[in-house]
Design goal:
By secondary structure, the protein is of the alpha/beta class. It contains twelve helices and 18 strands. The strands form four sheets. It has a seven-stranded mixed beta sheet with strand order 4-12-11-10-7-5-6, sandwiched between helices. The longest helix is centred in the C-terminal third of the chain and has 33 residues, at 328-360. The protein starts with 19 loop residues before the first helix and ends in a 17-residue tail after the last helix. Bound molecules: pyridoxal-5'-phosphate.
Length: 465
Amino acid sequence: MATNTLTHVGPIIRTELPGPNARRVLEGDKKYISPSYTRSYPMVAKTGRGIMVEDVDCNQFMDFAAGIAVCSTGHCHPEVVKAIQEQAGRLIHMSGTDFYYENMVTLAERLSKIAPMKGPHRVYYGNSGTEAIEAAMKLARYHTRRQNIIAFYGAFHGRTMGSLSLTASKPQQKRRFAPLVPGVTHVRYPDVYRAGVAPRNAEAFAYECARFIEDKVFKTTLPPEEVAAIFVEPIQGEGGYVVAPTVFMQELRRICDRHGILLVVDEVQSGVARTGKWWAVQHTGVEPDILCCAKGIGSGMPLGIMMSRAEIMDWIPGSHASTFGGNPVAIAASLATLDVLEREGLENAREVGDHMMKRLNQWPSTVPLVGDVRGRGLMIGIEIVADKQQRTPGGELRDTIVETAFYKGLLVLGAGPNTIRLCPPLILTKEQADVALDILEECIRNAEGGKSIADPYSIGQPQGS
Ligand SMILES: Cc1ncc(COP(=O)(O)O)c(C=O)c1O
């Protein structure tokens, strides 16, 4: 990566986008790669360092997507790279399903220390978020001997058949894949803004959403003693970075306790220090029975984790496993990741998140098209609306803004139908955050003025400096 990243804060766009090398890769991609992927803009990455990513044409971008909230310590953090290299030189694979190795236990001990529920705990290792969710679904059924699961509209829990059955985010994720796993009931998630609820009524609304489970679902269609688990994201990720009010989470806990139902928190996106606490659920004071995480836990190495209170994990040998799950290199990356986050990431996510929020909280009243801003730490959603009064979802406008930001050298992604998500590496500085928000604000103002990516940009000039 070019050395000027050391002094220059912000993107540097040197070529038209996509540049000539990027275009070559895009042609190959079009020919060979599954068309099921959802790319918002033609970003062809070559190298990364910290919060910056350089493309194949030497353009440098600020990465506020972090590989979908994965690169928690930034790209190629030296401590993570070193841990991966050293471990790869010693032992790459052994398979914890059939053999033992030490760092599998070391990481479990470490996770147990930071778990959001009282111990003792046990840990299951997979390779991805969806595997962590599949494991939780199977464990919940196994332990409770019950079949049914409750999940929420707007939820995204993954794309394999079990987790997809819980997902209720976009129809294309499910179309033509039926039959899915039976026994899943979806209920409303407390999306306060989208429901048109005034802030002063938010708690009452959220409480009602939880109460609906006991007052209606359990009294009409679903006997509670047949429900194994409630799966919930404390902050919906793909659903639009929607924060569940504390009363909602607390009421879910009470309902679970009353009926012997397991509360499973999906912290695949919200977990591992992203919100300024190790786990987003800790903002609510609620203790889950099972926790799933992935993404940020390995700084980019594939690792999915399902952990529970020890007495819940009562399944017998052979009931669940994965050849690659928790391989030594991914675990080494994870241990180094936790070191970095413990030392600086956790507090930084809080501090820089607060810093950004101070400015962003003004946007619904000062910046056009911004209907709502919400989040915790460095998990921030900006909801784009075509009409603020009516809260009319501005999906196309959001897409234009996301795309325009790319051309300005800022990588962001959408979440939900009309929200921009900001999930940068947790080592972001305030200075970098300010530059990125300047760019984003400009993109939003341009979108309001009808300017699109077709408009000329100052190609060749450093952006946002
Ligand atoms: C909350 C949540 N759960 C589960 C998943 C699935 O994770 P993966 O893509 O690693 O299978 C995701 C992915 O975005 C997620 O955000």
